[in-house]
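Give me the fold.
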Amino acid sequence: MCFCMFLKRILQHNSRPSVKKVSQLIDNKSHKQKKYISLMVVPSYSSGKTRSLRIPRSMFYGVVIAIFAITAVLTGLQQRSAYLQRRAQLLEYNLSATEEDFYEFRILAEKTQDDLIETAAQIYGELSASEHRAQSALEQQARTHRTELEIIMEQVDEIERLIREFDEDRQALIGGLSNRAALIPPAARLFEQLEESQEYLLSYSLIHNPPAESVRVEYTGIGLMSFNPVAAPLTFCTLHEYLQLLKDELAVQRILMDNFESYRSRMDLYLRNFPTLWPVSGNISSGFGWRMRPFGGGSEHHNGIDIPAPTGTPIRAAGGGTVIFSGWRNGYGLTVEIDHGNSMTTLYAHNTRNLVEVGQHVTRGDVIAHVGSTGLSTAPHLHFEVSVNGRTVNPLPFMLEHM
């Protein structure tokens, strides 16, 4: 079609072609003849005229080349189309074969599944009565073990509670002891040693130093040692390990208490007998040291302190000990003297009445006499002395507590 249109344009361009003689057409020597290609159109009927058509060479060759190129492209497209068509037919065939294989496989899988279900049902149905009894026995044994574990866990909880209370009581005793020991210098030094010893022993306690990993599982609550619960079922093995930990903790607590008792027994002598109590309440009228003599003028060394009080006021023992004197002493009047141990004694003078006898044991705060004005005294008061290793010392640093 393209070629026909091209010829049509050429004919239109040469609508009036010039008719030349044959001798002119074959004039090889003509310069213009070399640039063109002449086509002769000879009619099939006798009356028609012969026509010639001149076409430039370049245009003619271009048309020929274009015809060949178009022919080659059309041939390539036709072959590509044929290849793609064959490829599509092959894919369609493979897809059809795959669908058939899949259908057969599905049928086979369904049949196999039905066979497996049937086989499982047969196996389950073939379980003998003895196997059922064995299963029941295992379940019963598991229930029995569970019950035993619950009983043991109740006992473990009770042990945990006792250990907690034991530790709390020990700490309360230490706290109470610190209040008294702080008032008595020798006891205070021992109490510091007690605290250091207790701190060292507590480094072995699971209560105060729980391990990084727990062996106890969450069962009835949080464990004694505040362990992180282990994500595992409770077994006799883990329970045995935890019971061993409780046993070790009890041993540590026992050592802690023995250590406490050892130090407290050494402090008891000071705690019970150290003279820290004011014998009577009141203001000091005459202190320890040199003063003006109340009788006869001059100065004298006052070996104690004087505390004015109404006659009959109870006089209390400044600390526990044994009465080593109770009676009249020159200058002192009615006097009571108590030995507190550790080479310490106290003296209570100018009493109106003594209530204790020699050899009698008294405790801190016991009433031992009444205030009076016997002996060399100008008014009712208590003369109070403290002696260490036979030498009188200032009583005031010892007087740390009031009734």
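Confidence is low (pLDDT under 50) at residues 14-23, 214-234.
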